[in-house]
Structure formats: C-alpha cells, structure tokens
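Annual report, structural modelling task.

Input specification for the GDP-alpha-D-glucose complex:
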Amino acid sequence: MSGSSKKHRLIIVSNRLPFTAKEENGKLEFGESAGGLVSGLSSFLKTVGTNTSNISEYLWIGWPGGTVSEENKEELKSVARSKFSSYPVFLSEEEMDQFYLGFCNKTIWPLFHYFPTYTAYQEDQWQQYKNVNQVFAQAIQEVVKPDDLVWIHDYHLLLLPNMIKTRAPGALIGFFLHIPFPSYEIFRLLPGEWRKDLLDGLMGSDVLGFHAYDYTQHFLQCIVRILGHDHNMGLILTADRVVRTETFPMGIDVDRFVTALENPASVQEIKDLKKSLPGVKIILSVDRQDYTKGILNRLEGFEILLETQPRYREKVVLLMIVVPSRIGVDQYDKTKKQIEELVGKINGKFGSISWTPVVYQYRQVPFHSLIALYHVSDVALVTPLRDGMNLVAKEYVACRVDNTGVLVLSEMAGAVKELGEAIIVNPNNRQEISAAMAEAVEMPAGEQQRRNRIMRDRIKRYNVIRWAGDFLSQLLAMREVQSKFYVKLLSEQLKQSVITDYSRSKRRLIFLDYDGTLVPFVRRPEMATPGADVSAVLTQLSKDSRNTVVLISGRDKATLQQWFGDLCMTLVAEHGIWIRKPKEDWKMFKEQTADWKSHILPILQLYGDRLPGSSVEEKDYSLVWHYRSADPEQSNVLARELLDHLTNFTANIDLQVLRGNKIIEVRAAGINKGSIGLHMLSSDNFDFVFSIGDDWTDEDLFKVLPESAVSIKVGIANTHARYTVQSIQEVHRLLKAFAGKA
Ligand code: GDG
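The model returned the following structure:
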C-alpha cells in the first residue's frame, strides 16, 4: 500500500467478528469463525504495522456470533480486545432474528441475487434492520478517532456509512459490497422509502467498492435515477459530498493455500482421499447451502451425464460438500430437502455396491481437508445461479500446484471476469453443465495446464493483499480529492467575519441568485415560489437604505415581477437581458433582437417531443429546454445530441448555447450576469460587495467581482467564487444573520 507516510488505525466493521463466542453453562467459549472475508482479510492484516503499510494497528467491530448475558459482557470485551483486536457489538436474539434471518437474508440477499420471488417485504424486519445498523453505529462511535479509516463490509450494514459520517465526520469511510449490486429494474422493486434510505446510507461512504464493473455501473445507475446525483467516471458529486465508486475484484492469498498443502495434516488427507477413491475422476462441488449457488442444477446436470453417457458410470464421482448455512430461513430449509432427495435419487438410480455416484456431505470441513479436496479433484464444478465473486473457484485454481485440473465456472459468478480460461457455462442450462463435465473429464493435461497457468498467474498477481491495499489506498487518496472540493468551504469563523464586515459597511451591493440558492429545485419551475421565510428576509434586506439588493435570475420578467415586484430591490431577468431598478420600469439592458428564435424554437420543440417529461420555455430573448423531470439517462444522451446540434447550427450566428442545471439555454451572445455585475458595481462606491449563487451562470458574475468581494457558491464544485457553502439552509442562515444586523 502506498500513499502518504502517515499511519492510520484501521477499523474493520462486518456483521460477524473473526471469532465466535458462545456461552456454555454460563461460561464463555471462544472458537474460530470461518469464511472468505475473515481468511482473506487475515492475510492482509498480517502486513499491518510493517514498514510498507499505512496502517499502524487495527480493530475489528462486529457481532461475536452468540447472545451473551450481562455478567459475561465485560469479560468478552476484554478477551476480544486482547486476543482478537476486536470490539463486540451485542445484539439480542430477537434483534438478530429479525435483522439477520429477516431483512438481510429474506429481503436483500434474494433480491440482490435476482430472486425477486423469494424476496419478503416486511416492515417490522426493515425497522429492525435500521435499528441494528444504529446499534453498530453506536458501537463504532464509542471507539472511533478522527484519523481512523473505517472499512465497512457487506449487505448487512448498508445504512451504516451515513450513520457514521454524521457521528464521526473526520473519519474516512469505505464500504465494500461482497454480493452483486443488482440492476435498477431489480433494485426498484424495493419500496420507495427503503431504496432511497439504502442508497443514502451507502452515500455516507467516501469510497464504495464492488467486485465487478457491472455492479458498480448498476449502483451508479440507481444513484442517478433514484437520488438524482450525476457522476463523472465513478466520482459522484452531491451538494455536500464527493464519493468515489470503484471496482475491486477480491482475490485470495494463493501462497497461504500452497504452503498449507505441505502441512502434515493436508498431506495425510490427500493420501487418504486418493486411496479411498481409486480409478475414478473426482468432480468437486463445495458451497454454502444456498439456493443462489445452483447446487440442484449441478446435480441435475450430473444426472443427465450419467443418463445420456453411460460410459461415465463407475468412472466419475461427484464429491459434494454442502456447508450448513442460514438454518431457519424457509427457502434454505427447502433447498436442503430438495438437494438430499435428488442425491438419493441419483445414487439409487445409478449406484452399485462398488460405486456411489454422489458422495454427499452436509457439514463444514476443516481447512486442511478442504484444500486436500481441491488438490485431488480433477474437476471443480462451480455453477452458481448468481454470485458476487466466488472464492471457491479461485481457491481450486490456487491448489492445483502442477496446473492440472479443470474449472467449470458459471457465467453468473463475478469470478468469471478473471477466470475466463475456465469452461464457462450458463448455470440454468443442465445440458450445458453436463456437456461441460464431459469436456472437463476428457480435457488433455497439456490443455489443462495451459489454461490454469494463465489463471494462476492472474490470481497470484491480484491477490487479497493487493485487493485490500488498493481499496485502502483509494480511501486515503480521497482526503486529497475532497480537499480540492472542500478547500473553499466557508468555515464558522469566516462566516462570522463576513457578518462583521457586513454590519460595519455603509454601502452594500448584494447579488442573489434565486433557483438553487434561495429555493430548492423542484420538478416544475413555476412551483418554486418563494416561501414566507425567503420573502421575509428579502423584505428586510431590501428595506435597509445601506443595501442595494439585486435579485439576478434566469427567469422571465413577468415571474420576477409577480413574486418580487413590490420589493425595493433591483430585479434582473433572463440572466441579464432585462433589468428593473426600484421604482422604475423594466428596461432592456442592451438592445436585443429575437429574430433568431423562430429558427431555434422548432429544434428545441423536436427534442421536447422526443423526450417525455422535458419542456421548452420561451422567454423574450432566450429559449430554454428543461429536462429535470425526464428520464435521467435518456436525457443525458439527448442533451449531448442537442448541444451538438445547436452548436453546429449557431456557428455563424451571434448566439450562445449553454448547458446548465438540467437545462440547455440559447440566448444572445455577450450578455450574462457578469455584464450586469459590472454595470451595478459602477453605479456607486460600494464598501461591501456580496454575491451568492449555485449555477454556471453565476460564475460569470464571480469572475468580474473585485478581489475584496465576498462571492459564495452553493454546493461543492470547482468555482471562481471565494467560498462555498453546502446547502440552501446555510444561505438562509447567512442572509438572516445579515438581516438581523440591519
Ligand atoms: C460471499 C459472496 C464472495 C466453504 N466451505 C468450507 C469453507 N469454505 C470457504 C471457502 C471460501 C468461503 O468459504 C466461501 O466464499 P464464496 O466466495 O465461495 O461464497 P460466500 O460465502 O457466498 O461469500 C461471494 C465472497 O462473499 C467474498 O467477497 O465471493 O460471492 O456470496 O473461502 O474456502 N471453508 C472451510 N470449510 C468448508 O467446508 N474451512
């Protein structure tokens, strides 16, 4: 891991801790907790504290795997800290039931794996999911320090990043999703409030990681469509946050597997296996018991093989390890029953005294046995219907030290992106699985080695240490990325000094933008009427004889007149075309013609017709195509097309084409908020110049103001303004403070 030399503490947060603690007869018993994340991260954590690491120490936060009574909690905490560098999150059985077996595994897991028919939508379980995420947030708050890196894992804790961001704004927060992120069409099956809360929850992260490019794209698509945030090459920019999304395919620690194969226990196991299954080709299948893993289809494929190609009878054995998982969730109990019935059927139909076609074990096997199985199996059958990554496929390749062996891999597993030399199958097609098994059994050793060599090299290079290192480097890099955006943020101290300058000044020029600055954007522009608080503050400011208030907007003059005509302030419409000074009539700022409108209007109307939800606004001297209410992705494509079309069309006419906030505007060249700004500045000798706005049109104004002016951009972005604020609420607070000093 590279980056700055400063060392950080890493806080890992996952549903389960890397150990288990249970109470037996009132006493605590500790055990090991298995799983890809734990074993993968443990390899990385061994590098912590070394010279090359940016991490000085780590702390793992999670549930210890059992309910613990009050009197044992302190002991558990102390052992967790001293022996496992961990901090336990205590949950009651009821909480765990509704949360883990409920919302996690009956809602998110099936939906995100494209099983909408298995998905439950239960309000009480959703409430418990929110509650448990809060319990985790509370636990993190108890230990987190400002400079920590917090790395949250997986679908159990989707709401957590935002909860931490509000409680510990100084910490950098990373989130990694180990399961697929589904396409928008699937994700939107969730009730509106849930899907918005889940995305808002994730958006509290500074870096969001996914196993595969497709999942990242799906997530970004949901962010655009549901939250309305745009992104640029995976960098999402909201009014107050910069969030990086990135693809990090998780790897394994190849060396650990290779070394472990030499342990006496593994060596013995390999010998025993070879002895007990002589003269047959071993086809291995290892999974947690889960309907997403496609175990049934695999068995059906095997049945077809034995049925249609009798020459394989007595010659192959399917060694099937099914690891108990999520016992108590209906769908899992049902799948187990179906698997066992089918195993019985196949063995009954084809087996003989000397040959059992399917050797089935429903249990977790110890690590040394697992790697021995990988090592001796001629074929590994990894055919999930959907899988975020699938580490078993990589582990099998790692354990084939002489590069023989054939991997049959589902095209629905994230791992397929890196293991393209495997025999790739569609797991829904049993015939294809059966044909792949035959092809695998027949594959010449030379061809096996050619394929595995490429795959082994790849998984050795992008191993789990690299994976974690890359993720954390990206996380650390976010400080710099964000500081570029946050550098101008108006601090409380600066704000107070601006207010003091305001109160001491005698001749003030105040430029205010309207939409996105004083009021939020809404679906239809005519609905963004000024609320009572906005009207009150504007009235107060404009009544002060020391103030020249200029409301400068892109809106037409009729609207501004209707809303603000009675106030004693200067109104500027159509970004500078029209101006109305207090007690005067509307005047054109610079002579304009509108002849060009008849040429441009039909083009905009054409796009208005092509994109449902978009509309064309005709102002006196400008035309605007609005697309805020239209489909966001379609509108991005059409907006680019229209810009191109208009730029070509207006090449020889004195017009400007501008892309704004969900609008494209055409108007005469040479007039903008900057021209009005200069005009107003020259009208008096001001000792306090203030300008605030959120839009690209305000940049023209910021550019022409004197250095001493206080210019403020609403929203974080690259800007010519001196300062930025993060929200409209902050604008209101500042203007109210001004008004209070009047
Ligand atoms: C989730 C995602 C993603 C399995 N049986 C035994 C055993 N295992 C170990 C394997 C492997 C791990 O468990 C399983 O990892 P997978 O990746 O195959 O699948 P999930 O558990 O569903 O994991 C998945 C993963 O997270 C990581 O991001 O790849 O897509 O669903 O490491 O070796 N270990 C032992 N005995 C067993 O019987 N000791």
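The first helix runs from residue 36 to 45.
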